[in-house]
Structures are given as structure tokens and as C-alpha cells.
Amino acid sequence: MNNDHNEFMWLDEHHEVSLDEIIQLSGLTHDELHRLVENGALIPNNPTDDSWRFNSHYLVSILTLSRLKHDFELESDSLALTLVFLERIRTLEVQLQRSQHTNSAPTIDE
Amino acid sequence: MKFKDYYEILGVARTASNDEIKKAYRKLAHQYHPDVSKDPAGEEKFKEVAEAYSTLKDAEKRAAYDQLGKHASGQEFKPPPDWSSQQGFQEYTFDDIDLSDLFAGFAKGKGRTHQSGRDRPIPGQDYELSAQISLEDAFRGTTLDLGFTVPEYDIQGQLKSVPHAFKARIPKGVTNNQKMLLRGKGGKGFHGGHDGNLYLNISFVPHRLFRVIDNDLYIDLPLTPWEATLGTTIKVPTLEGAVNLKIPAGTSSGQKLRIAKRGMPKHNQEFGDLFAVTKIIVPTTLSDQERVLLQQLADASTFNPRHHFE
What we know:
The complex is a heterodimer of chains A (about 110) and B (about 300).
Chain A (H helix, E strand, L loop, with lengths): L7 E4 L4 E3 H8 L3 H9 L14 E3 L2 H15 L6 H23 L5 E3 L1
Antiparallel strand pairs in A: 2-3
Chain B lengths: L5 H5 L7 H15 L9 H15 L2 H8 L16 H5 L11 H6 L1 H8 L13 E7 L1 H6 L1 E12 L5 E12 L7 E5 L15 E7 L5 E4 L2 E8 L1 H6 L1 E5 L6 E5 L8 E4 L14 E7 L7 H13 L10
Parallel strand pairs in B: 1-5, 7-11
Antiparallel strand pairs in B: 2-3, 4-5, 6-7, 8-9, 10-11
Helix pairs in contact in B: 2-3
């Protein structure tokens, strides 16, 4: 699903951003983002198309990555590894939050 | 304008080399960076450290900073009379301005004095804010009053801290800890540069009854032992009024009973589910009659919940 509102964009697994939008919003370069895709750290929803689109949740990790790159003066080669770990942390945090509020008992429908 | 001792913040001597400044910054960045540190005060501390480093790592900025002289941290001061013109700034009043804004605007200010840099577009700064909303507001959608201060140039080219207040519409469908990008709601761009963006982290105020996971709601449903054993129908609160829920006979603690489409709205106009999590509560005081009846049950029942121990 695309973010259909010009004023805001949801950053989650249900909405998409283009490569150009990520470049514009994150300050990372076209080459740096291409390398993230080549290394499998950033996975487009349409890898065989010319204009890649990504789930907008990536933007959260990529903005952090951009901050870390700037603040710690990270080399381009370390960006993919850093993004993989940022995404892993994000996924684990979501799982942890879910497991704190649910249990494994079977569900009975009303 | 209040003085900040950038050397003191980084813990280096005023004569420190660039390498020493960089090393000190890296050490402090690992300690306080908000994406790395667990220290709740880390973010504010890191801002100071980053501000000090961004000025001292740049030879021109460091020279300009050194010319401000040494003052006590937090002391009100004004730069020497000819400082602005020496640094290529237009004349500032230095009221309403922070030292960090001054040096953040340093490159921009310098740029404006050069013919080639005049009218160069400067994009506005991005900002990040957190806001808490109630579950009810998330359910219906709401409008938030947001505000922060941003450094901006006025018509005379003076850099000032300006309050930036606006309303942000939060449509229904927002989930807990969801992030939103509000385009153009950050710092103002200059010379045709686009306005910065605002990243808004939305979390829900804990609700007295409901817990929320994605678009689903969870509510603890206390049951008496006899309601759970015999089955019953119970009125369960939802965000749109109570609904009747049939409790099947033989319900145990911790079972999840799904009430379809009574959760939070989704982006696609559908709704999540409400899960009632059963919790059998036993009475702590018994009347004489209750005690007699329970004793009769204990004597008559062959039920053994621990048969797997044998």
C-alpha cells in the first residue's frame, strides 16, 4: 500500500517508499543505498524492477544508520552490517513487546 | 548569549590537537549517543558533545570560537565588537540566539558573504518528537498541538530561535510506538531550500483496561470458578460500548476468547480483534453456606488437574 497522503507518511510494514525518497530523507547517497541492497541488508519489494520500492519501516533504521554514519564517521563498508543489526534489534523489540502482552494458550473464537 | 566551554565539554586542553579532539569526541559519543547509550540523560549530553566537536573539528570555526575568549560556562557574554565582520557574518544582536545556532549558521552565514554562495538553497533541519495519545484518541483519530523552537533567519538575515507551533492530524489506524513522517514540518529552508521534516514517535498512554498489540486489544477477564466451570455470558467492555461474550463451560485460566473486529482500526478500514484473556479468581472469604457447598463439591468430585504428575 502506498502512503496516499502528501502531508504524512506512515513508517511501517504496510506502506512503501521509493529509493529516491529514501535518498532525499536520509542523506545517504545513491551508491551507498545500492550497496546496502547488493549486500542484502536492504530488500526491495520489487527487486527486478528499475524503480525499487521498500517497506517504509526501513526508513526508521536507515535514519538511525545515517545518524550513526555521521556521528561516528562510519566507513561505507560498515553500513550494511550496521543496518542488519539495527533491523535485527527492531524486530526483536517488536517480538519482545508482543510476547509481554500475549501468551501461548489456544484462542477460542466467540 | 550564554557561553559554553567546548574544550571543557570534550575534556581536552585548549591546545589539544585535532587527533586529541577526535579521540575525546569518539569516546564520549560511545558513552552518550542516544542510539547506543542506555543513559536516559545521554541524548542531552551527546548534543553538547556533538555541538562542541562540530565546532572544534573545523579549523575555521575553532579559530572563530577561540576569538570569543574564555568565559565561565553558562556566563552571559557578547562577542568582541569586530568579531561578526571578521567571521563574515552580518551584524548580529546576539539576543535570542544560542552559541550552537551561531556556529550551526556559521557556514551558512559565511556562504552569504561570498558572491558564489549567495542565494544558495539551504534545506531546513529535520526534527524528531515523541507524543503520547490515549487509546480512545488513537481509536477515533485526533489532532495534536505540537511545538518546538527552531533557528531561523529573519528578513535582516539575523539568526534567531523562533517558536514553531502547528497542529498535526493523527488519523485513526495509528499503532502503539508507530512512527510518522510529517513532511515539511521541521526547520524552515532558506533561499528556496526545502523545509525540514518532522519524525513523530507516537505511543499510547497505558489504558486501565486494555493492552494493545498492533491492531489487537487484550483485556483481562476475571471469572469466578463456577462461571468458568459451568459457562456463562458476560458483558465485556470494548472501545465502542460493552458486548455480550459467551464463556464456554470448562474454561480455564489464560484462555484467549476472540471477539472479532472489536480491536483497533487498521489503515485499510478493517479492524483488529479484541481478546479477552480469562483469569479465574477465587474468593478470599467465604460465607458458611459457600464453604459447605464447596466442601460438598470437593467430596463429590473426581477431577484431578495433576494426573500427569503420577
